[in-house]
Amino acid sequence: MSRQLSTTDQWIGQFDSVLRTLVPHAAQAARPSPAGELPEASLSEAEREHTVGLMRINHTGEVCAQALYQGQGLTAKLPDTREQMERAAQEEIDHLAWCDARLQELEGRTSLLNPLFYAASFGLGAMAGAVGDRVSLGFVAATEEQVGRHLDEHLLELTAADRRSRAILEQMREDEAHHERWALEAGGARFPLPVKLGMRLVSKVMTQSVYRI
């Protein structure tokens, strides 16, 4: 019989999640990297720098995803919804660790803006969860739709020779599409176009700033 976690236990777990999300190289993937034993590509300096920028954007996107799921899980009303949020968050940890490892391979770094984006995303997630599970799930679906759009764009921008980065982004794309479908099938609200356009604008600000910082 599992022990009911106290409020203190929950906050300790939350703090541990924050550290694993924000401290470089702290996240541990449950699944092996899709890059596996694929050979490293011979990239020009310009190609390497561009790929680092793209992977840094994807890493920060996973930081935001962690924060959103953690915030929503904290305020979600239904136990089933909370459990699904936690399960999806674990897959996002895999993405976080894979992007971090790829940045190390490319001699890049994670974004200095991650703590700022984490705090903002956690707040949005907590507010969405507090409003209700239908809105919270809808927010997941709309967010994953935006993430999928970015991943599609990045897959087009990557040099064809970089099979390691491509394998990671393709698996991430598959997982994000699954999260989007789950959120809608679980009863998530379909956000109207103006809301999605607003989210797209915020996402654009994030990507442009994180690419270099």
Please give a structural write-up:
- By secondary structure, the chain is mainly alpha-helical.
- The protein has a single domain, classed as Ferritin, core subunit, four-helix bundle (Ferritin), CATH 1.20.1260.10.
- 74% of the residues lie in helices and 0% in strands.
- The chain contains seven helices and no strands.
- Helix 2 packs antiparallel against helix 3 and helix 4 runs antiparallel to helix 5.
- It is globular and about 50 Å long.
- The N and C termini lie far apart (47 Å).
- The mean pLDDT is 78.
- It catalyses: a 5-methoxy-2-methyl-3-(all-trans-polyprenyl)benzene-1,4-diol + AH2 + O2 = a 3-demethylubiquinol + A + H2O.
- It is a peripheral membrane protein.
- It is an enzyme of class 1 (oxidoreductase).
- Its cofactor is Fe cation.
- It is found in: Cell membrane.
